[in-house]
């Protein structure tokens, strides 16, 4: 668990599916730390990185940019990024940044086995 300025990141690893649970606000004040947390989760080159935003209370464009370096690194290793429990605020932020076509975004939890149809990849 990492704690920085009212925001926390919990990482849970299960074979090839890594889950990072963020909380609090994601803004310019902590975007770099969020990016570091997400990049740390990619160290083992999981097949799926799930970013759970259920406890994120606010995210602006500066905070949303934390996902850009993670997305670049994930693509290098073939890791799929799933963003779950996305609030309306976070969805709008991702849309403004043009990330909705690059991230697998879900308002609820992740699809079973990390695939849209529930089957193993």
From TrEMBL:
<dbReference type="GO" id="GO:0043856">
    <property type="term" value="F:anti-sigma factor antagonist activity"/>
</dbReference>
<dbReference type="InterPro" id="IPR036513">
    <property type="entry name" value="STAS_dom_sf"/>
</dbReference>
<dbReference type="Pfam" id="PF01740">
    <property type="entry name" value="STAS"/>
</dbReference>
<dbReference type="InterPro" id="IPR002645">
    <property type="entry name" value="STAS_dom"/>
</dbReference>
<protein>
    <recommendedName>
        <fullName>STAS domain-containing protein</fullName>
    </recommendedName>
</protein>
<feature type="domain" description="STAS">
    <location>
        <begin position="18"/>
        <end position="103"/>
    </location>
</feature>
């Amino acid at each position: 668990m990492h704690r920085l300025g009212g925001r926390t990141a919990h990482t849970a690893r299960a074979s090839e599916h890594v889950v990072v649970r963020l909380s609090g606000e994601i803004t310019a004040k902590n975007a770099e730390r969020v990016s570091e947390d997400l990049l740390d989760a990619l160290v083992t080159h999981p097949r799926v990185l799930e970013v759970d935003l259920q406890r994120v209370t606010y995210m602006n464009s500066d905070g949303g940019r934390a996902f850009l370096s993670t997305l670049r690194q994930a693509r290098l290793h073939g890791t799929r990024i799933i963003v779950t429990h996305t609030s309306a605020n976070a969805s709008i932020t991702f849309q403004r940044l043009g990330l909705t076509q690059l991230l697998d975004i879900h308002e609820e939890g992740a699809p079973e086995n990390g695939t849209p149809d529930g089957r193993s990849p």
